[in-house]
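REVIEWER CHECKLIST
Item 1: Sequence provided? yes
Item 2: Single chain? yes
Item 3: Sequence as submitted:
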Amino acid sequence: MTDLLTPPFFDLLIVLSLALGALLAGRRFLRDLRKPPPADAPAWTRETQRGRAEDHA
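Item 4: Structure as written out by the authors:
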């Protein structure tokens, strides 16, 4: 059982866990970007969704 956790295998586990974490963080970031701002958000957040707020008033 001690032969299983060799230094190259341990390095592989570290790299895989970092890659999985980066993938999950990227998916969450993109999902947060696509979500519309809440109703009580500042005006500048609504401007980023549809252009300038003055243009759509």
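Item 5: Key structural point noted by reviewer: The mean pLDDT is 82.
Item 6: Recommendation: ____
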